[in-house]
Write a structure and sequence with these properties.
The protein has one domain: NADP-dependent oxidoreductase domain (TIM Barrel), CATH 3.20.20.100. The protein is about 40% helix and about 15% strand. The chain has eleven helices and ten strands. Strands 9-8-7-6-5-4-3-10 form an eight-stranded parallel sheet, with helices on one face. Strand 5, helix 3 and strand 6 form a beta-alpha-beta unit. The protein is globular, with a radius of gyration of 19 Å. Bound molecules: NADP nicotinamide-adenine-dinucleotide phosphate. NADP nicotinamide-adenine-dinucleotide phosphate binds next to helix 7, strand 10 and helix 10. InterPro entries: AKR, AKR_Detox_Biosynth, NAD(P)_OxRdtase_dom_sf, NADP_OxRdtase_dom.
Length: about 325
């Protein structure tokens, strides 16, 4: 396994982050395709055995059960200080007023709920899952700073939003002497590269780590365009993301061509492309089978040529902003 500093922090993270949205009770929350605890556990342990020290989950994943699964595996694994544990806040956790968002009340309640479900007294990275247009950013940044100062989170990060919003949040934190975000978890893959316009250069300029979500476009980059799995059939959010079928299909075919020439699975090519980008610290991979982890690890040693990278990128056309 390779390790990188998370942005300008001193924190070492593996170059692959394990996305734990795949793990949780399918009857709870919005992801009907998730794996139950018995099927999730060996995958999380396999990732840890491969040297992946960086795990990402969220309060909202499968209504808190993703955090519970991860917490129980880590308790049995027993090496909490070796793990970089990331979770998120913003999604709806209960009906009615104050059931979601980034108010001081929501953040203070949700960090404690996450810590209880994760069975730990701190997370390494506490991320805002989205921008909350209904709460002043000053209120959010001060609450996050207080979470850090209370010892409940080591660092804070953000997820999908416009670059101007991220820049504003950092500016507010700096003006008040509050904790700044050290990472951006955004939507980025060969089918969705809009982040190259503003967010990636902004993060490079600020020394913020980029940890993209859905690096394989939720599986679309790993198989023929028309092939579906249980997940693609039931993944309601995924259906909102990739909306330019003609161009997207050509990109998927280009991945297949490079993969065939190399004699490796498509997933390795798509991840190797992402790892070739200097602004990417660690893609957050989804693994529903053991060989998904093997491919992700193998991608770390696959060096693509300039010509191969150009071939993978040439069919891309601008996409409407998706995933905010
Ligand atoms: N911040 C956010 O808003 C946000 C949004 C989305 C995700 N995330 C984070 O990002 C993580 C990853 O998201 P994701 O699961 O969508 O990532 P992904 O890596 O793009 O997709 C994972 C899916 O691709 C397929 N796959 C993976 N490796 C494969 C291989 N080697 N061969 C064939 N198929 C393969 C599997 O699909 P099948 O299961 O269908 O076979 C797997 O479920 C999540 O767990 C979560 O932590 C964050």
């Amino acid at each position: 396994m390779e390790y990188r500093k998370l942005g300008r922090t001193g924190l070492d993270v593996s170059r692959l982050c394990l996305g734990c949205m795949t793990y949780g009770e399918s009857a709870r929350g919005n992801h009907a395709w998730t794996l139950d605890e018995a099927s999730s556990r060996p995958l999380i342990l396999k990732a840890l055995d491969a040297g992946i020290n960086f795990l990402d989950t969220a309060n909202v994943y499968s209504d808190g059960t993703s955090e519970e699964f991860v917490g129980r595996v880590l308790k049995d694994y027993g090496q909490r200080d070796r793990i970089v544990l990331a979770t998120k806040v913003h999604g709806r956790m209960h009906v009615g007023p104050n059931g979601m968002g980034l108010s001081r009340k929501a953040i203070m309640a949700e960090i404690d709920h996450s810590l209880r479900r994760l069975g730990t007294d701190y997370v390494d990275l506490y991320q805002i899952h989205r921008w909350d247009p209904t709460t002043p950013i000053e209120e959010t940044m001060e609450a996050l700073h207080d979470v850090v100062k209370a010892g409940k989170a080591r660092y804070i990060g953000a997820s999908s939003m416009y670059a101007w919003q991220f820049a504003k949040a950092q500016h507010v934190a700096e003006r008040h002497g509050w904790t700044r975000f050290v990472s951006m978890q955004n939507h980025y893959n060969l089918l969705y590269r809009e982040e190259e316009r503003e967010m990636m250069p902004l993060c490079q300029d600020m020394g913020v780590a980029v940890i993209p979500w859905s690096p394989l476009a939720r599986g679309r980059l790993t198989r023929a365009w028309d092939e579906a799995t249980e997940r693609t059939r039931t993944d309601a959010f995924g259906k909102t993301l990739y909306k330019v079928p003609d161009a997207d299909r050509r990109v998927v075919e280009a991945v297949a061509t490079v993969a065939e020439r190399r004699g490796v699975p498509k997933a390795q090519v798509a991840l190797a492309w992402m790892l070739s980008k200097p602004f990417v610290t660690a893609p957050i991979i989804g693994a529903s089978k053991p060989d998904h982890l093997d491919d992700a690890v193998a991608a770390l040693s696959l060096q693509l040529s300039t010509e191969e990278i150009a071939a993978l990128e040439e069919h891309y056309v601008p996409h409407a902003v998706a995933g905010h």
